[in-house]
Amino acid sequence: MSKNIIITGTSKGIxxxxxxxxxxxxxxxxxxxxxxxxxxxxxxxxCLDATDEKSVVDMVKSVNREFGEIYALINNVGAASLNHLLxxxxxxxxxxxxxxxISTFLFTREVAKAMSRAKxxxxxxxxxxxxxxxxxxxxxxxxxxxxxENFTKTSAKELANFGINVNAIGIAPTKTDLIKAxxxxxxxxxxxxxxxxxxxxFDDIKNAVEFLIDEKSKMITGQIIYLGxxx
Length: 231
Description:
This is SDR family oxidoreductase. The chain contains 7 helices and 7 strands, in the order βαββαβαβααβααβ. The protein has one domain: NAD(P)-binding Rossmann-like Domain (Rossmann fold). β4, α3 and β5 form a beta-alpha-beta unit. About 45% of the residues lie in helices and about 20% in strands.
């Protein structure tokens, strides 16, 4: 029987690609505010706001109750913003922090409760290379991802006794809707500061996720892997 994994933000972009890529190996439970175009016997979609506590609690309980143990959680849902600090309004800050960090916290907390009973589980959070590179115009976005990195390291310690591994992947620029509004010169600046100076593609991300949720990586936790190589 296929193992159960939850992937957030599966209506498009990286989350959609991951959901499609894992369907032959896992039973995938995705979520997004909009409906999904994925139609597959191994895919179940939930329409919800990933920052709404009750919706997240209800989804995780439903998956756990109806389908059994949750093997892995991939916290993919996210939002980006490029704006100078002095011209950033508070509503934008709240939206970025809620979408990127609060959703990660809520899903991690609820899924970890279920995983702790099974004494086994893999959680992968998504950060960004924008965090270590400290690019101008990305103060709020990078701060939200920095919160995820600290959360990853600390929760890895708190959940280790329950057999749960928690790691994060720092995503390099990937050709999705998320970066369409970012000026090309800013994307070029990011890529030029990587050791491997190229865009990441969906397979690069999927390969990193596969490594971190594989049983062979059971001794790896609290780590941040930056695609493309930054320091």
